[in-house]
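Input record, target 12 of the design panel.
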């Protein structure tokens, strides 16, 4: 079912999926700065996805991360957090409110690997049943709005980015704190567009009374970014407030 309850603790199944993925990624062949090694995650006709290793953080001068990889989904020209936020904010504006809530709920599920399946020790994003049907419906609405974005490819890219974050920050498998890496990263992907969408609504509502605009959410977000160096997942309560009735307590 798409309707999803807020996850308050990591289940053994979720933890095992993260462990399997981290161990698999650590075994990927390593190239060098000029000759990177490529490991395919999907080679389906309509979905080519892979990691290149090492990633750019491997070679940085200050605090290099030897486990960093570069996630790639062919057909998507998205390479930064800002570009992800831009796409999601545009979708939240052009799509029917229920549609964008469903999309963001699917991304929430992605943070916790709910639609990732283990097959022969490998964990892959494989939405099925109602979730896949909803993805197809979302795609149809995106197409009807004239926007060029393959939503399954987009979700796959978010999944690979989250996978890479776990490899970078949870390679010791301690999961302390448990949300560090994949979970905080993907939740931040949806938090920022939701906050901006809420602020846009606030501005429109108070267009003739600008003195009533509440800047609190933007200020709180800026403060959190300053404290956490770019990771800013909003609270479970706020997520439910934004995404109900598809995300529930």
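The sequence produced for target 12 reads:
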């Amino acid at each position: 079912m798409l309707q999803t309850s807020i996850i308050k603790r990591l289940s053994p199944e979720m933890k095992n999926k993260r462990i399997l993925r981290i161990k698999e990624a650590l075994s990927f062949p390593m190239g060098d700065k000029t000759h990177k090694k490529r490991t395919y995650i999907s080679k389906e006709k309509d979905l080519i996805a892979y990691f290149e290793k090492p990633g750019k953080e491997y070679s940085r001068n200050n605090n290099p991360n030897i486990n960093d990889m570069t996630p790639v989904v062919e057909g998507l020209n998205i390479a930064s957090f800002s570009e992800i936020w831009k796409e999601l904010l545009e979708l939240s504006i052009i799509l029917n409110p229920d549609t964008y809530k469903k999309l963001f709920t699917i991304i929430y599920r992605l943070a916790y690997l709910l639609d990732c399946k283990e097959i022969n020790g490998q964990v892959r994003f494989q939405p099925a049943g109602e979730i896949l049907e909803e993805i197809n419906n979302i795609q149809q609405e995106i197409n009807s709005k004239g926007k060029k974005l393959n939503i399954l490819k987009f979700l796959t890219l978010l999944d690979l980015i989250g996978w890479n974050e776990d490899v970078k920050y949870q390679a010791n498998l301690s999961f302390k704190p448990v949300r560090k890496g994949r979970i905080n990263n993907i939740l931040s992907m949806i938090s920022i567009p939701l906050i901006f969408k809420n602020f846009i609504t606030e501005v429109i509502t108070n267009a003739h009374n600008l003195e009533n605009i509440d800047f609190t959410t933007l200020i709180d977000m800026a403060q959190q970014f300053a404290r956490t160096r770019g990771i800013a997942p909003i609270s479970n309560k706020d997520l439910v407030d934004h995404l109900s009735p598809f995300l529930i307590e």
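The chain has a mean pLDDT of 90.
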